[in-house]
Design brief:
Number of strands: 4
CATH topology: Nuclear Transport Factor 2, Chain: A
Strand content: over 45%
Number of helices: 2
CATH class: Alpha Beta
Distance between the termini: 28 Å
CATH architecture: Roll
Structural class: alpha+beta
Strand order of the largest sheet: 1-2-3-4
Largest sheet: 4 strands, antiparallel
Length: 98
């Protein structure tokens, strides 16, 4: 498992690119985890840019832009994500879309 929230963010981006729902759900904190994930058909993730990361004890924030391509058009997802370390493991909690 990733040792930092920033590393978890990178691994979750890869999981989205590979449509690995099992990994995404396993790294989502149980109090905010959805029952299932649906992927957008034809969406291809092409870039992850980390903008800012901060850690304060067992809480962390990671701001990023993830770029995807769908139907020949590029789209950016800009999010500030919150993470928590629970039982020694980092989990994604939620995020605010910018």
């Amino acid at each position: 498992m990733p040792l930092t929230a920033q590393a978890l963010m990178r691994s979750r981006y890869s999981a989205f690119a590979l449509q690995n729902a099992a990994y995404l759900l396993a790294t989502w904190h149980p109090r905010t985890r959805p029952v299932r994930l649906d992927f957008t058909p034809g969406q291809q993730w092409v870039l992850l840019k980390l903008i800012f990361a901060t850690t304060n004890g067992d809480n962390a924030t990671v701001e990023f832009v993830a770029r995807s391509k769908m139907g020949g058009k590029l789209q950016d997802l800009h999010e500030v994500s919150r993470f928590v370390r629970d039982g020694g493991r980092w989990y994604y909690v939620d995020g605010d879309i910018r």
